[in-house]
Design brief:
By secondary structure, the protein is mainly beta. Helices cover 0% and strands 42% of the residues. The protein has no helices and 10 strands.
Length: 154
C-alpha cells in the first residue's frame, strides 16, 4: 500500500467480522498491526405482533416486539421507543413507563420484548435497535444504531 493510504470495505456476512491491518513500517519503532471491529452490513429484522386482546392502560402486554439480528449468537442490544403519536407505548406495564430496555439476543440472534399500550385510542411508535458497544445498558455515544421500525397499537 502506498504511504498515506486510506481505504474502506463493505462486507456482507452472516457472522462476526474482524478486520486486521498489517501495514507495518519497520522504520518506525513500535509500528505494528491492529484489529478493528466492523459492523455487519446484513439486515436486522424487526417484527411486531399484536396481542389478541388489547386494552390501553392495563398490565397485560398489548404486543410483542421481535428483533432478529443477522448473527447467530448473543449480542448486547438496546431497544428504544421513540416518536410516539396518539398515545403512549412502553416496555413495562403501567404505571411504569420504560422507553429504553437492555438485553442480549439469544444463541439464534433473536430477542423478544413485550410492549404495553398506555392511552387510547391508538399509538404509533418507532423502535430503534442499538448495538450496546460497551454492554453497559445505557444509550451512549459509542452505541451503534442497527435498525428502526414503526408500529401501531389500536
Amino acid at each position: 500500500m502506498p504511504g498515506g493510504f486510506q481505504g474502506s470495505v463493505v462486507v456482507d456476512a452472516a457472522g462476526l467480522v474482524v478486520g486486521v491491518s498489517n501495514n507495518v513500517n519497520y522504520d518506525v519503532p513500535f509500528d505494528g498491526s491492529a484489529a478493528y471491529n466492523m459492523p455487519v452490513a446484513a439486515t436486522t429484522l424487526l417484527g411486531f405482533s399484536l396481542a389478541a386482546t388489547r386494552t390501553a392502560g392495563d398490565t397485560n402486554p398489548d404486543g410483542t416486539l421481535t428483533v432478529q439480528l443477522p448473527v447467530p449468537f448473543s449480542v448486547p442490544v438496546l431497544l428504544e421507543i421513540t416518536s410516539e403519536t396518539g398515545g403512549d407505548a412502553s416496555f413495562t406495564a403501567p404505571p411504569t413507563d420504560t422507553d429504553l430496555i437492555a438485553g442480549n439476543t439469544d444463541a439464534n440472534g433473536q430477542i423478544q420484548r413485550n410492549v404495553f399500550w398506555f392511552a387510547a385510542p391508538a399509538v404509533t411508535f418507532t423502535v430503534n435497535v442499538y448495538y450496546d458497544a460497551n454492554n453497559n445498558g445505557i444509550l451512549d455515544a459509542g452505541d451503534v444504531l442497527m435498525a428502526t421500525g414503526t408500529f401501531t397499537i389500536s
